[in-house]
Amino acid sequence: MEASLKLFCLLGLFVLVSIAGGVQGAGECGKSSPDKEALKLAPCAEAAQNENAAVSDSCCLQVKSIGQNPSCLCAVMLSNTAKESGIKPEIAITIPKRCNIPNRPVGYKCGAYTLP
């Protein structure tokens, strides 16, 4: 009886550790990192640095895709890759509105910024 209880506890601990390990792998952008997702926004580079620059259709398609998950979009805009690319978060957050994306996360807090 005592041996089965120990085995049951050990099995329970194994399941717990397995679940916790799986959760760690998923972040704001699922299994992909915000830095990797930021690379997909290369067509948005100029529009994310200059609020007067035209936003390309390819940029809007990528923003619409990533923007289905507002926390991912936010993490991408604030990622190291975006910063190293010269992206200005205060301008980048205006891209969903500039693309006229109807279901954009208006008012979503993204660090110190709010999506318009």
UniProtKB/TrEMBL annotation:
Signal peptide: 1-25
Gene3D superfamilies, per database record: Plant lipid-transfer and hydrophobic proteins (1.10.110.10)
Domain Bifunctional inhibitor/plant lipid transfer protein/seed storage helical, chain residue ranges per copy: 35-106
InterPro entries: Bifun_inhib/LTP/seed_sf (IPR036312), Bifunc_inhib/LTP/seed_store (IPR016140), DIR1-like (IPR039265)
Keywords: Signal
Pfam families: LTP_2
Protein name according to UniProt: Bifunctional inhibitor/plant lipid transfer protein/seed storage helical domain-containing protein
Organism: Hevea brasiliensis
Taxonomic path: Eukaryota, Viridiplantae, Streptophyta, Embryophyta, Tracheophyta
